[in-house]
Fold this protein.
Amino acid sequence: MNPPNLESLYRDLRPYSFAIAYRMLGSVSEAEDVVQEAFVRLSRSKPDEIDNPKAYLATVTTRLAIDALRAARAQRETYFGPWLPEPLVKECTDVIDIAETAESLTMAFLVLLEKLSPVERAVFLMRDVFDYDYDYIARIVGKSQTNCRQLAKRARHRIESGKPRFQASHAEQAKLAEQFFAACSDGDVDGLVALLADSAAFYGDGGTKGTGVPRPVHGRRDVAKLMLGLFRHARRLGVQLRAVEVNGQPGAQCFDAAGGLINVLSLDITDGAVQTIRSIVNPDKLRHLGPLSPIGRRSGG
């Protein structure tokens, strides 16, 4: 395989490889590592060994992602506070376009995928998202077609049982998100409470390096109180809020006066209300988005 051909394949197929790896891992940095290794293996192959480079990359990417996810599981089980995926922000990176924004990219969906084993996750994604047949999936994961069908069915049930029944339209989500952030900025407690679902929840992922929230906060009153407190503190620090799409859903980035990124907020909006707010402040999960702020960092983080 000559260099120009490899460069062309990288340009054309890297987005596809990344789309698989990111959904498998929920991590931009880990997905990029998997993609790089997949292309290294492609570059070392002989031209007559690979009939279909796209299929080859799908196979290698999935297998590498399974191994990476198995290794990451131990760390995620001992993670400090809530674990959230690394965000894809539309205005700051091209990976949101690379990964083809869809329901299977939302924070809520990626969090649901964490309930699956690495092989279950691979089988489910390859079948329900990437539309491969069971014969091909069986060869990727080294299981029988019957076993893969059972894994997909079990995974599908677990995912469907956790999904919201009534998803708001994109326009409705954008409008409600604007009202939500305005109420937070204005300190409008009644307006904020009215926008939150009864069972609203807040998850703050800081890991050991960021000032996240060790445990989720539940209930519209408690979530409203937390959000208003955070925004009051942000105003005192001169923090600027920029509305963006996060994994295809309404969200925002918070910047300090020097333009350093503090955190990323993502909103789940269903049934005409804000159901879940997710805040990623762990710097390790934000580095791909640009320069970071010291605000929100723990000492030594």
About this structure: The chain has a mean pLDDT of 91. The two ends are 44 Å apart (CA to CA).
